[in-house]
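Tokens as discussed.
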């Protein structure tokens, strides 16, 4: 598992405006939860959740 924060920055950059818009609207419509609000390591089971897990 990558320990740096680069994986978050790279994932967030292309969708940042969309995320902010969805949060302002109060309705999530796209897939960004893993890298905007990551889980602790061991909680998520999908490969994406594991990739963005915090240890």
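Sequence:
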């Amino acid at each position: 598992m990558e320990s740096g924060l680069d994986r978050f920055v790279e994932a967030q950059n292309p969708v940042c405006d969309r995320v902010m818009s969805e949060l302002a609207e109060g309705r999530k419509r796209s897939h960004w939860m893993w890298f905007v609000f990551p889980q602790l390591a061991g909680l998520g089971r999908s490969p994406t959740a594991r990739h963005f897990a915090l240890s």
